[in-house]
Specification:
Blueprint: E1 6-10, H1 13-26, E2 36-41, E3 52-53, H2 57-64, H3 69-76, E4 79-81, E5 83-87, E6 102-106, E7 112-113, E8 116-117, H4 119-129, H5 133-137, H6 140-145, E9 165-168, H7 170-183, E10 187-190, E11 193-198, E12 204-209, E13 213-215, E14 219-222, H8 229-234, E15 240-241, E16 250-257, E17 268-274, E18 277-283, E19 287-294, H9 301-312, E20 321-325, E21 329-330, E22 335-336, E23 339-341, E24 347-348, H10 356-371, H11 377-404, H12 412-417, H13 425-433, H14 453-462, H15 479-499, H16 503-512
Parallel strand pairs: 1-2, 1-14, 2-10, 5-17, 14-23
Antiparallel strand pairs: 3-9, 4-9, 5-6, 7-8, 11-12, 12-13, 15-21, 16-19, 16-20, 17-18, 18-19, 21-24, 22-23
Helix pairs in contact: 1-7, 1-10, 10-11
Amino acid sequence: MSQVKKILIVGGGTSGWMAANYLSRKLGGNRDGGVEITLVEASDIPTIGVGEATVPPIRTMIASLGLKEDDFMKASSATFKLAIKFDNWMKDASAPGEIAHSYYHTFGAFNQINGELIAPYWVMDRERSGKSYVDYSMVEGGVCDGGKGPKRITDPQFHGPMQYAYHFDAGRLAELLKTHGKNNGVKHLIGKVEDVGIADNGDISYVKTAEQGELSADLYIDCTGFRARLIEEAMGTDFTSMNDVLFCDSAVACQVPYLDQKCAIPPYTTATAHEAGWTWDIPLNDRRGYGYVYSSKYTDKDTAEKLLRAQLGPQGEDIKVSHIKIRTGKRQRQWHRNCVSVGLSAGFIEPLESTGIYLVDISLRWLAEFLSTTDKYELSAKEFNNRMNATYTDIIDFIKLHYAISGRTDTQFWRDNTNRDTWTDTLRDKLDSWQTRVPGVHEFSGFPQVFGLTNHLQILYGMDRVPDLSGQEARFGLMQMAQAQAIKYEGAVKGGNAVMPDHRALIDQIYNGGFRS
């Protein structure tokens, strides 16, 4: 097998154009001797721009494409994201006498005192302090409460004093990446796939479109969404559903205009639990992306739409909505012979922790890494598939964790989610082990690791899944230092809120000019 010289990406959208830009950049697509990158997409495929939330690695991905942060933000209606705020995941706040429950999952790191985790000290001190785990051990929650941005207009592109990601319009980002890619040597074709030729050895030999005829390449990238036109329909690779673990298989979504274009913009995504799923609220520069992710086993399409409209109040009465079917799961062979699936064609996990773009991101990084060092598909594909399978397993466990430890019992959806029989074996073992101890640093040191110690601590303790440390007090002799550290974080929040810009004000500065660094 000769080394890859021509890559054909089938399908556009965010995943297709991200693939085109990244692979062209990393494989020398715009230089003599580089890999030729072509993207073919059908002109009749609409983009649903409901608003996308991301995690911090997106910053290095966007930077690696040669884009400026302020240009990217303006083009995609982007805002900053410091956290996810979870509302009503422990109880149904609409029930009589119930008080709403909320917590943050931030991008803040776990903290230590003299090399020891502060987490067990919070566990033993939480009743006295009255503070949440996040407020006791980091500043990010307080900054979110203050409505502040993660950086200042004078900070460098893609950098600031706090970890952050973005909210953006995926459709607008795809258009930006299309223009950027074409300007940097990506060949763009319009064509609807009519046939895919399969050679005797099982490789794809060509992709035939009505408009362009037969197109051939050394390697094919399938970015055709849930349809998986190449990797599944043509090549027959299996897809493994995970709907027995993650129940949500449908969504209804809409775009919600701001009634006041100068209103405050929260620096976080809001995920609010409901009877058969949860709603997302993603604040962009000029509107909100709003949607209800739900399980069709526990509610129906019309009831879901009614709930979404009711949550929006008067704005929801006439707003246009889109219904989306979700196929949760993955294929074991995301790279099969000379075809690699990227994005929805590879798999999908409900968007609770904003991993959709991340999975595209990490798959492209690994793909470029293997293609630049080897011309042996079978060896590259084996390692790529191993990594991607481990990544999906990690994410699925973490997403299920949110449901598994919920205190809600008001509907069958929640009762089934908290049933241990619907958990994976690995998640069940973790939760059993953590009943009498705080998770440790080293059990999250494997590769790949998407969600590490800080992420698990924030979800576990934000949802009151606190270990019983009775009889272990002698192991933790730094209580006074921990309490003093918690007071320092409280002061740091006040200081941070005093010097960091209001999120809306920062966004306005960026859109009206740009960073001054």
